[in-house]
Amino acid sequence: MTDLPSLPSLPTLPVAGQQPAGPVLGIDLGTTNTLVAVWQDGVPRVLTGPDGEALIPSVVSFPTGRPPVVGAAALERARLDPQRTVHSAKRLLGKGLADLERESASLPYQLVEAGQRDLVLIDLGDGRQVSPVEVSAQILGAARRLAVDALGCGPEDLSRAVVTVPAYFDDAQRQATREAAKLAGLKVLRILNEPTAAALAYGLDRKGASRVLVYDLGGGTFDASLLQLDDGVYRVLATAGDTYLGGDDLDRELMELAVGLLRKKTDRDVFADPAARTALRMAAERCKKELSASPEADLVYHDPAAGVALRERVSRGQFEQLIRPLVARTLERCEQVLRDAGVDNDGLDQVVLVGGSTRVPLVREMVAEFFGRQPHTGLDPDQVVALGAAAQAGVLSGATAGMLLLDVTPLSLGIETMGGAVSKLIHRNAPIPARAIEGYTTYVDGQTAVKLHVLQGEREMAADCRSLGEFELRGIPPMPAGLPKVAVEFTLDADGLLRVRAKEERSGVAAEIEIQPKHGLTDADVEGMLKAAWDHAEGDMQRRRSTDLHTQLQTVRRAVEKNLGLARQTLDGKALERLQEALEDAVAAAAEEAPDRLKGVLDELEEAAYPLAEALMHQVAAGSIADRRIDELLGKQD
Amino acid sequence: MSDPFALLGLPRGFRLDETELHRRHLELSLRWHPDRFVLRPAAERLQAEDEMARLNQAYGLLRDPARRAEALLALRGAPAGEGTDATSSPEFLMEMMELKEEAAEAAAERDRARLQELLCGLNVKLAQEVEELGGALDELPGDPVEAATGVAAARARLTEIAYLRKTRETLERALIPRA
Which of A226, A232, A261, A271 is most buried, with most CB under 10 Å away? Predict the structure, then answer.
């Protein structure tokens, strides 16, 4: 792949009059911090506030009776007003309460279930509730204000943005991010995957061809993406991740250590008090950061009001023992990426570390050991995603013609078929924009509507995948089962957002949906689903196969039963007996699960029914039923 | 379905030059990716997005041997689901049962070397199956009646390949060290 064609340079057209004058913003909306960057004079530049600081803490405080406070000022209010100060809202985007069980115990603010869309809300304790989307919108608004001040343009000139998300974000999480931007008055030109953005920034001043694995461990999420870089063309070969594994989880290990120690000192449940939870979380985070620089650090917590104090010396070794399983999980994802891309370790040119949590020495050590090489740590792990977002913003505003990004979708997409199996239309790691069409048909005679249940995930059965939405295709003219031709088309745009269309081709009846966020999945779920997909691969396949066979068997059975009268008239004694026996066996096989045995029963029934089918065809040919409707012939649906 | 081989400008056949496939896809991506059309009118941009999606679809079909085989069968007017799936030989099923038992044993004993060995064997077997599938498909006679046996053989190989792949995933999973 060294002799790649050079990018054809397209003629440039003038910018249309109604386009905003300002640049497109590149925004890294992080779990812990948010940054904004722009493409300027051929390079990406991270913008800073009046204090010279680029990081906006992704924290929003909602004081009662006053407007919300964002960033560093909100962080200061965290201990003062813990219930109304929201951090890590990114981990709540597109999630339901049930998905956040473990998380909610250590959060200082209260989560409640929203009515309509099964999405979680934050209860501020003063009669107000806010959604994670609104919290994220506040942060994006702050990023936009920072850019307005830094660039000196009007806010209306800075209304377009590229916003990054973890590559492993599912459809609901991407939709939620897009909604947040909309609330902040930003038009999203692209939802960009974070590791891809990092690779863009990494590749900017590098020529030639190379294969790079981006290891991105952030505040709340982990992604691994493998890219092929060729002189400005960035092609993602595979991606995998965990949207619930990041710095927050490393902190939580230390929090739980502290809680264990405090239990020995006091009967009070320290986790019950929101202010204590905030203080503990901050103590844990401070301790973690210190341990990256020194072999020992103090985990300090005191609550004078309750008369509780803790000062525990934690060694790096102790911390590493706690977090080792979490880091090991990231390496499993790396292994999967290599496998999916069909690339072995030797085929990699570079492993690039991104995200604040890659500052933890154990992470660097284990990554180095896994890949058998020192990873590249030359990029500023905090800034690189924003820089990449700005580079893509440059591409999308027509300012960087020599660059092109070809990304993939992280999770497979499909629909549920009869019996609860999943038929995958778009496979994981398929390049986007993607499109797929599959043909389906009806299950019963005279069926006038079909249910289309859209799913995301790797498992074989619908119940084990994430449901993205359901819709119906109605108004199909009554036809015998199997005759309608329903074409289902999936289109996945360059942002990784899905649209589904269905059309019955004989009648032209059509329906479509744009997938809207419905309910959340915990990350343990996403990970668990993937893990389970492997663990149960064989069982799944069997279940799926027996489900398919049962469906086929029932279809044939019903057809035969309806035409038994004709069979009695036309078949000879032996053939009739064989058919009746096969039919009895088919009825008896209703509880059978072994595919081999089911297949045997089905084959026998099909064979035994063959003379009957012949007789039916003869009748049709002889015209004796020419003026009768075909559904009458096959019998009305019961 | 339109012909994925024609879309990517490649000769129709199971055996294809993978380097050429990637090269063609990349070349066409450079031409059609919607990001190359950001300053063009909306209609052109939409057309590009549609074209790119079609190219990606064709690329996805051709990149994977099993899906490539399905595409070839569909182009011959023998799409999946028709004639149900052909049954595998008893030898194949026996072999798989033995492999499964050995793998379960090795996994229980945490014998990584043995698992690795089984995985290698499985990959060889898989490569053979793909090779046989290629033979069955590329030498099919044009006449549909004469081709029926060949089509059935190809379907049987496809079922076996799907099975082998699932087994491989299970084996690979067993090989990942647990924290």
Answer: A226
**From the CA of B139, how many Å to the nearest CA of chain A?**
27
- Cβ neighbours, 10 Å, residue B44: 12
Question: Which sequence positions of A are flagged as catalytic?
Answer: 28, 90, 194, 216
For residue B83, is it within any domain? no
Q: Which residues pair with A235 in a beta bridge?
A: A228, A406
* Per-residue pLDDT at A600: 87
| Amino acid, single-letter form, for residue A455 | L
Mention the CATH class of domain A25-246+323-406: alpha beta
**Residue A333: closest CA among A252, A428, A255:** A428
Residue B81 domain flag: no
Interface subset of A 195-254, CB within 8 angstroms of B: 230, 233, 235
Q: Is the peptide bond before B90 cis (omega within 30 degrees of 0)?
A: no
B127 plus B55 within the same structural domain: no
In the prediction, which pLDDT does B154 show?
83
ipTM of the complex in this document: 0.81
How many angstroms away from the CA of B143 is the closest CA of chain A?
25
Using CA atoms, how far apart are residues A394 and A392, in angstroms rounded to an integer? 5
- Say what the pLDDT of residue A39 is: 93
pLDDT, residue A301, reads 86
A633 Cα to chain B: minimum distance (Å): 24
* Those residues with Cβ within 8 angstroms of residue A614's Cβ, 6 or more apart along the chain or in another chain: none
CA atoms of A250 and B166, how far apart (whole Å): 34
Cross-chain CB nearest to B27 (options A5, A328, A430)? A5
Return residues 585-604 of A near B (CB < 8 Å). Answer: 599
CB contact under 8 A, B19 and A432: no
Structure tokens at A99: 């998905």
Q: Contact, A412 vs A434, CB < 8 A?
A: no
Here the CATH number for the domain that contains residue B21 is 1.10.287.110
Q: Measured between CB atoms, which of A5, A406, A433 is closest to B49?
A: A433
CATH number for the domain formed by residue range(s) A537-633: 1.20.1270
A282 and A327 in contact (C-beta within 8 Å)? no
Predicted local confidence at residue A619, as pLDDT: 65
Q: Give pLDDT tens digits for A128-152.
A: 888 898 999 999 999 999 999 999 8
Residues of A in contact with B53 (CB under 8 A): 433-435, 491-492
Same domain for B133 and B57: no
Tell which of A406, A543, A549 to mutate to test the B interface (max B CBs under 10 Å): A406
pLDDT in tens, B77-113: 765 554 445 566 778 888 888 888 888 888 888 888 8
Q: Is A300 left (phi over 0), alpha (psi -120 to 50) or beta?
A: beta
* Nearest chain A residue to B31, by CA: A8
Give the structural domain span for B53. 4-63
The beta-strand segments (E) located in A109-232 are: 110-113, 120-123, 129-130, 160-165, 187-193, 209-217, 222-230
B-facing residues of A in 299-338 (CB < 8 A) are: 324-325, 328-329, 332, 335
Between strands A85-87 and A110-113, the pairing is: unpaired
Best of B21, B23, B26 to mutate (most A CBs within 10 Å, chain A): B26
**Chain B: residue whose CA lies nearest to A335:** B176
Q: Where are the beta strands (DSSP E) in A65-158?
A: 69-70, 85-87, 110-113, 120-123, 129-130
CA distance B68 to B82: 17
Query: Edge-to-edge, what's the strand order for the sheet holding A486-492?
Result: A434-440, A486-492, A498-504, A510-514
Q: Which CATH superfamily is domain A247-322 in?
A: ATPase, substrate binding domain, subdomain 4 (3.90.640.10)
CATH number of the structural domain spanning residue B151: 1.20.1280
